[in-house]
Amino acid sequence: MMRQYELVERVRAYTPDVDEDRLNRAYVFTVQMHGTQKRASGDPYFSHPVEVAGLMTDLKMDEDTIITALLHDTVEDTLTSIEDIEKRFGPEVARLVDGVTKLSKIEAQTEDERAAENLRKFLLAISDDIRVLLVKLADRLHNMRTLHFIKSPEKRRRIAKETMDIYAPLAERIGMYEYMREMQLLAFEQLEPAAYQTITGRLKQIREKADVEIDQINQTIAWEMEQAGLKIKISGREKHPYSIWKKMQERHVAFEQLTDINAFRVITETTEDCYRALGVLHRRWQMVPGRFKDFISTPKRNGYKSIHTTIMFAKNMRVEVQIRSAEMHRNSEHGFAAHWAYKQSDKPDGQAGWLRDLIEILETSQDAEDILENTRMAMYQDRIFAFTPKGALHQLPKGSTIVDFAYAVHTDLGDKTVGGKVNGRHVPLRTQLRNGDMVEILKSKAQEPQQAWMNFVTTGKARAAIRRHVRHKERDELVVIGRKLYEEIAARMPGKIGKKALTAAVTRLKLEDEDELMHRIGLGRINDRALMEALVPGFDADDIHVDFPGQGSAISIRGLTPGVGYHLGECCHPIPGDRIVGLRLAGQPVEVHTIECDRLAGGADADWVDLSWGQGSDGASARLRVIIHNRPGTLGEIAGIFGYHKANIIHLRMTARDVEFHTFEVDLEVHDLQHLMRIISALRASEAVATADRVYD
């Protein structure tokens, strides 16, 4: 464990004017507060914050950050309060300690909710000051180094998984690859112990045999660079065991099939020398196509810069080489911490682009599953680069589409997207982008996010924005349905129900406002009896005999969106023109069925609501069963009938086949019942068709 004077000397080495007395007081304070507390290893607990502070000195962090590291567990694990810290060490340290403090006391119903709430508050804290993240990463790294002392295997695995899912990706996103690699390695050992032992064992065997070979490659590359007049430093490095395992999983290959276990790093003096060194390598040895990446020209989102290439060395040996300047190398190891100097009047804002996206996701996501899914998407997916027509560069996860790109540019642009051009050519919205694509977004003020986009977008930012819009729209439409249901229920009661009674009912039901009442009625969370009792206390709903209302009093669903305010039954596929009934199940949007639907005849446990499509309703899908003669061209003929009547085929599947006939079920997008009947008539008139009928199940 680092002693008090050693810590002070380490800080003085890069900050000669440091306030030694303040550092000493912080060291003594953490020792006194943690007192006789012990870690799982048996060491005094205060050894942990001291080691975390030592990690901060390795990064040459400022005085406030070192003190924060010393005090980061005092609020959670001792009787110290944030007010105590502010009084002794100032508001800046108090704010940082508050940001780093573990949030173990959060009460939530599930593990996901607790993890999501921790992640939400933690990311909001680091958005205010990135130093919070640096201390937290050092805290987690030291805990991982001592993880083996914890006796419970389940607890070790839980901590390791959290590290792999959240902290290692966060370290990568701010370019702290040294932290990321060590955390991944330590977590990998706990999560996949058999794979860890196998890979590290094989690497040890290779290391014992390959030392001479690695020295030869080093010397050969160094000699070529010297002949070209370049001053470089070169080192061979072994691939990370976790990255080897991950590559084996992704490529479905055995260890023996990997050809790039060892890699080499060439450190130059300047950026210009990086490209000169690249030229030397490619002139002397053949490069492997598809294995060249220039992260100097297009840096990673975390600021990482380097050139990666793979060359064919002697005996067809593949050798991976990374080329970077000395400054790039410092930044690649410690990321933001390597080049952010914390001075009294010069503090970083912590608002890296990826962090802004995460904060936006947190602000728009409403439940634990969304937060965890979308933030993990934003943190650790492989990236591609695409450009706007003006040349602005945007990084996106692999598999991103036109819609993902639009949301990456701006949320409002994503909401209004109607189409896109890639490299000047019109493409569908679900088109996946490739490295170097130039993307132009076409928009319309009348457009709004579509639920269907969720089937193909990949970025957390896009998914969060679409879900937010759909939820808001769903609430608005359920309020409309609830208000119509309320009016129908109120009309059944003796006497006119006025505004005063409605306001009193909201109060009696302990709801926020009238819209919340209508929303709950629409969701079926307040039944007729409870509503009547709230409107008129003491009213006996059993005194009213209510027949099922006729179509004349039906509630119109015109203007509402299928799948949002209500769902069209998958069992009967109702379309405009059908006689329809709604089922109101607690906590769900209204379910719309045709009056002939077997689900209604089966006595579904739900309230019935008489519905109508409303004048001008248009568009829904219907299902047909078509039996055609088994001869060439018949399927094309019925497809031609659909096309002639301007009906889109949503889904087509063969359900039966014999010598004479083929049976197909077809889901068609039609305008209304009249449109569907014209299509059925045309099918029945065709010589290719034996029978054509609508299917209700």
From TrEMBL:
Q: In UniProt terms, what function does this protein have?
A: In eubacteria ppGpp (guanosine 3'-diphosphate 5'-diphosphate) is a mediator of the stringent response that coordinates a variety of cellular activities in response to changes in nutritional abundance.
Q: Which reaction does it catalyse?
A: GTP + ATP = guanosine 3'-diphosphate 5'-triphosphate + AMP
Q: Which organism is it from?
A: Sphingorhabdus wooponensis
Residue ranges annotated as transmembrane are none
What domain of life? Bacteria
Q: What class of enzyme is it?
A: transferase
Write out the GO cellular component annotations. plasma membrane
- Keyword Nucleus listed? The answer is no
Q: What is the official name of this protein in its record? A: GTP pyrophosphokinase rsh
